[in-house]
Design a protein that fits this description.
single chain; 512 residues; mainly alpha; two-stranded antiparallel sheet; 18 helices; transmembrane helix; cell membrane; MFS_trans_sf
């Protein structure tokens, strides 16, 4: 266990000389996982046709990954604490590469769905290991700000990069390459991690595995994610949807009760009850609801309403990626050591809300350069600025033995937020479109008029849902401002300082 230095004579440990090389391989692995969340979406129509997947089962190509990934994240984070982050990271990469090869070689529906579930399971090992490695590798406040700036830009912008890469691979090669492309990513990241990553000693949690906690959390999260996925296709009042939500509530309540009583919990409640980390998990999860819904609507709007090709659609998201990179690596990184995190997160979410507000003005003939481009720049700048301190704060001040599970909670809030965003905003959009068409159907008497009305109805639905996204981002900003009260990082080392010391405004130097 680390100890707080008790006199000025003590100095912080010498930083790992290979830490910046390690960041390259950790970031590469994170990019691969984030890419995979969207790259397959573009390829899905082609894959469905080749493999003979029915329309009813098509959603399972996405859902199988989401359920395995979301359901097993906490377990993956605990495994990282138990096995060691470096070993978990390399095993996760190897498994993800093997599952990707299986998906690319799929000859039927069952093989494809199995490969996607396996990708999700190994992704659940990989994602928390990557973030916790970053947390224990970068301990100097200024260096940590830079490292998390890069990581935050990838976490926020990787989904949009996936749309571009997916469009290219599908249009110029074939859908199988959206799976095969993961293999070189994984091989390079695993080889680099093996040679370069050095995990600090004394950070493992060797307590026995909390089996009841694993079962309850996995089943509870799977039921929650699947409930939102089912709501999108079957409706919110469907008996199966309601049953899944009720079952999820019971399982997750039982999980919390179990964690409060067992000697070695899967998710120590101290990780959640810390005011600042709780604020990060909640505000980030809500912000991701808004972002995932937007990816969906803009993709449909650009392809169906504006007639863009998959590649053009991908490139249309570039301003958002550019905004995220600038917001994360320039604004967030430069200001993180100068101002408290809430003064980056709250204004960041509000800036993104202004960008989203512009998109409520979408019409069939909306100019890309006049409205969509500036809206995306604002969204990217805002989310990049907010994501960067959020990623750092999520593992800030946490006991080293809890770093993996604290990292898993960040990914869990994003994964559940993504599932909620897709289902909730899609349902709102569909209802608004139906209402719009019902009111005006009588006036559309020719095929051309009916087609125009259909497009107008779609755009009206998107605008209605985006209004909700504006409100959700405003709530995220309010939560970040009210709940997150830690001060700016000062002093030397910020990681591995135990559960309390690093949460003060003044962060003491830590000696090992």
């Amino acid at each position: 266990m680390p100890k707080i230095a008790d006199s000025p004579a003590h100095t912080a440990p010498v930083p790992d000389p290979g830490r910046w090389k390690a960041l390259v391989f950790i970031a590469l692995a994170q990019l691969m996982v984030v890419l995979d969340a969207t790259i397959v979406n573009i390829a899905l129509p082609s894959a469905q046709q080749d493999l003979g997947i029915s329309d009813g089962n098509r959603q399972w190509v996405i859902t199988a990954y989401a359920l395995a990934f979301g359901g097993l994240l906490l377990f993956g984070g605990r495994i990282a604490d138990l096995w060691g982050r470096k070993r978990t990271f390399i095993v996760g990469l190897a498994g993800f590469a093997a599952a990707s090869a299986l998906g690319g070689a799929a000859n039927g529906e069952a093989m494809m769905l199995g490969a996607r579930a396996l990708q999700g399971a190994f992704g659940a090992l990989l994602a928390p290991a990557a973030l916790s490695l970053l947390a224990v590798t970068f301990t100097d406040a200024k260096e940590r700000a830079k490292a998390f700036g890069i990581y935050g830009a990838i976490a926020g912008g990787g989904g949009a990069v996936g749309l571009i890469l997916g469009g290219f691979l599908t249009e110029y090669l074939n859908w199988r390459w959206t799976f095969f492309v993961n293999i070189p990513f994984a091989v390079v990241a695993a080889a680099g991690a093996y040679l370069v990553v050095r995990e600090p000693a004394g950070g493992r949690n060797r307590s026995p595995l909390d089996v009841p906690g694993v079962i309850l959390s996995t089943l509870g999260l799977v039921a929650l994610v699947y409930g939102f996925t089912r709501a999108e296709s079957e409706g919110w009042s469907d008996a199966g949807t309601v049953g899944l939500f009720a079952g999820s509530a019971v399982l997750l309540a039982a999980f919390v009760l179990t964690e409060a009583r067992v000697k070695s919990p899967l998710l120590p409640l101290r990780v959640l009850t810390d005011r600042n980390r709780g604020g990060v998990y909640l505000s980030l999860g809500l912000a991701v609801i808004a972002m995932f819904g937007l990816f969906l609507f803009l993709t449909y709007y650009l392809q169906i309403v504006k007639g863009y090709s998959p590649v053009m659609t991908g490139f249309a998201f570039l301003p958002m990626i550019a905004g995220m990179i600038v917001g994360s690596t320039q604004i967030g990184t430069r200001l993180m050591t100068r101002v408290p995190p809430r003064l980056l997160m709250a204004p960041g979410f509000l800036t993104a809300a202004v960008g989203m507000l512009l998109l409520t003005q979408l019409e069939i003939g909306t100019s890309y350069a006049g409205l969509i481009l500036p809206a995306q720049l604002l969204l990217g700048l805002g989310m990049g600025t907010a994501f960067m301190p959020a990623m750092s704060l999520a593992t800030h001040g946490v006991d080293p033995r809890d770093a993996g599970v604290a990292s898993a909670m960040v990914n869990t809030s994003q994964q559940v937020g993504g599932a909620i965003g897709t289902a909730l905003l899609n349902t709102i959009a569909a209802s608004a479109t139906t209402a719009y068409l019902a009111d005006r159907a009588a006036g559309a008497t020719t095929p051309a008029a009916r087609k125009l009305l259909q497009l107008q109805g779609m755009v009206e639905g998107y605008a209605a849902a985006i209004w909700w996204a504006v409100g959700i981002l405003a709530v995220s900003a309010a939560i970040a401002f009210v709940l997150i009260n830690t001060g700016k990082p000062e002093g030397g080392v910020v990681a591995g300082s135990g559960t309390g010391a690093a949460d003060e405004v003044k962060i003491p130097v830590v000696a090992h």
